[in-house]
């Protein structure tokens, strides 16, 4: 994460918005109108969410609820819009962002209230355009009522729609109440538990259980890979994101959650009431496979993981392995430094990729460190759950032909993110620098297509088969089963 300040003036995208006029307009006409001089909203960049957000000492924040006047809600929405328009490396169009925010805001208006159209903008007077936007927003918000909490939800609906319009996994909005809930969870005596499943979800496909975790209650109850989650505590999960589904399943340790599951044969559903238990997976797992191939699963990258990996390779060297398989299929690490130092043990030549600024300036990533003295042929396993630093790892290996990359296209979720605390305590995060592959290919939103594409079907999951692992073993000369 970053800890530097970023200037506010917005870029000109061929629309009616110029930098200076829009900057003055956002700060003066919108933000300051929402509060008294004693509680001026002062945006600031943070490297983490504070345990107790106190941007303006409003009494409602201390009650743990999101409460804003219509003016304050508009100010927060416009602050988020200003940040995204100016500082996001992918430069979303300011007008389209506003249009998306308007769609989200009007969609959240009470049933029966007319949804006003997006205000008409001229081509030469941005101040008048924004005045119309402001008047239209406040007029509709006043008619909606709903009190302070209702007004906060209207503004948040606009921000969420604006964030969704970027179609970027790194662009995330966490409202003030969610921030406080997260902080409370970190400091509370009650620990959060899970049921011991790893899930995957593609558009227009079931929410599949990909893997069972050791010690989880799901496996003990009879849930199996290839089963699909239909409901959580009676609530339909269709249309929810993976994070929303995971959040619904997690909860206080010792409490229960009911999962409605479609069995892998697709012919019946079954309810399971599962106890939430503490789960702790080791960050690295290893075993010798057929053909004397060493399999190593890396759930993330960190200095400790690098040390464990080197120890694992050293401890197994006496067995004279014919090759290594590194499983990155569920690796979503964002520790680029640890990834770079780890990869430098296997790949001498760089760069591994580049950090790229909004203006297109690039800085090379890696190599850093010392190559292992004893190298073996190796393969990487990747999937749509391989993201962030792990995608760079795989892209570098594939580009420099250091190893074989097997699996399916990666998540396409790689970049350097900035976290911005908004005036009400909400947090907006989005990429402020791109991460591109060593050949210059964009990874964010695109992902890496492995040289050896191997899918895993639901039936294969249910029967315990792993065709991706089998293919990697074959590439390293291991005999067939």
The fourth-level CATH homologous superfamily of the largest domain is 2-enoyl-CoA Hydratase, Chain A, domain 1
Tell me the strand percentage band.
15-25%
Task: Give me the count of strands.
Answer: 20
Cα separation of the termini? 45 Å
Low-confidence stretches: 1-64
Helix content: 25-40%
What would the CATH topology of the largest domain be?
A: 2-enoyl-CoA Hydratase, Chain A, domain 1
Oligomeric state: single chain
CATH class designation of the largest domain: Alpha Beta
Shape: globular
The CATH architecture category of the largest domain equals: Alpha-Beta Complex
Walk me through what this model shows.
- Residues 1-64 have low confidence and may be disordered.
- The protein contains 14 helices and 20 strands.
- Strands 1, 2, 14, 15, 18 and 19 form a 6-stranded antiparallel β-sheet that branches.
- It has helices spanning 19-31, 59-62, 70-87, 94-107, 126-144, 147-165, 176-187, 217-221, 242-249, 303-316, 336-343, 389-399, 458-462, 467-475; strands spanning 44-46, 172-174, 192-193, 197-201, 207-212, 228-232, 235-236, 251-252, 256-262, 269-275, 284-289, 293-298, 323-327, 353-356, 362-365, 378-382, 404-407, 415-421, 427-436, 452-453.
- It has 3 domains: 19-44 and 51-167, no CATH class; 192-275, Pdz3 Domain (Roll); 284-475, 2-enoyl-CoA Hydratase, Chain A, domain 1 (Alpha-Beta Complex).
- It is 33% helix and 20% strand.
- The two termini are 45 Å apart.
């Amino acid at each position: 994460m970053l800890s530097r300040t970023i200037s506010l003036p917005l870029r000109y995208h061929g629309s009616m918005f110029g930098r200076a006029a829009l900057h003055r307009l956002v700060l003066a006409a919108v933000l300051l109108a929402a509060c008294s001089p004693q509680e001026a909203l002062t945006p600031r960049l943070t490297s983490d969410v504070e345990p107790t957000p106190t941007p303006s000492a409003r009494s409602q924040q201390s009650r743990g609820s999101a409460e804003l006047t219509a003016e304050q809600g508009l100010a927060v929405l416009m602050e988020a819009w200003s940040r995204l328009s100016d500082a996001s490396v992918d430069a979303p169009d300011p007008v389209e962002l506003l249009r998306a925010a308007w769609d989200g805001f009007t969609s959240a208006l009470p049933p029966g209230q007319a949804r006003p159209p997006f205000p008409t903008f001229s081509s030469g007077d941005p101040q008048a355009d924004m005045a119309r936007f402001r008047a239209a927003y406040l007029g509709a918000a006043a008619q909606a009522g709903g009190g302070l909490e209702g007004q906060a939800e209207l503004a948040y609906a606009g921000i969420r729609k604006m964030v969704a319009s970027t179609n970027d996994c790194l662009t995330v909005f966490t409202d003030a109440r969610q921030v406080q809930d997260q902080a409370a969870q970190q400091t509370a005596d009650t620990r959060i538990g899970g049921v011991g499943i790893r899930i995957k979800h593609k558009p227009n496909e079931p929410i599949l259980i990909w893997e069972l975790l050791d010690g989880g209650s799901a496996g003990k109850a009879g849930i199996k890979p290839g089963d699909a989650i239909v409901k959580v505590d009676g609530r339909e999960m269709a249309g929810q994101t993976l994070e929303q589904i995971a959040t619904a399943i997690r909860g206080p340790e010792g409490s229960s959650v009911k999962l409605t599951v479609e069995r892998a044969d697709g012919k019946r559903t079954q309810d399971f009431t599962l106890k939430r238990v503490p789960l702790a997976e080791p960050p690295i797992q290893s075993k010798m496979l057929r053909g004397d191939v060493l399999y190593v699963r890396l759930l993330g990258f960190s200095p400790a993981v690098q040390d464990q990996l080197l120890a694992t390779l050293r401890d197994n060297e006496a067995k004279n392995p014919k090759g290594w398989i590194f499983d990155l299929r569920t690796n979503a690490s964002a520790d680029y430094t640890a990834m770079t130092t780890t990869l430098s043990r296997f790949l001498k030549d760089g760069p591994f990729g580049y950090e790229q600024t909004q203006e297109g300036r690039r800085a090379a990533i890696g190599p850093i460190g010392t190559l292992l003295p004893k190298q073996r042929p190796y393969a990487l396993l990747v999937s749509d759950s391989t993201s962030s630093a792990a995608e760079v790892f795989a892209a570098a290996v594939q580009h420099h032909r250091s190893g074989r990359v097997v699996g399916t296209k990666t998540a396409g979720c790689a970049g350097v993110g900035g976290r911005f605390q908004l005036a009400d305590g909400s947090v907006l995060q989005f990429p402020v620098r791109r991460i591109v592959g060593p050949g210059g290919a964009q990874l964010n939103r695109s992902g890496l297509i492995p040289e050896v594409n191997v899918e895993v079907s639901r039936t294969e999951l249910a029967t315990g088969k792993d065709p991706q692992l089998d293919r990697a073993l074959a590439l390293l000369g291991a005999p067939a089963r």
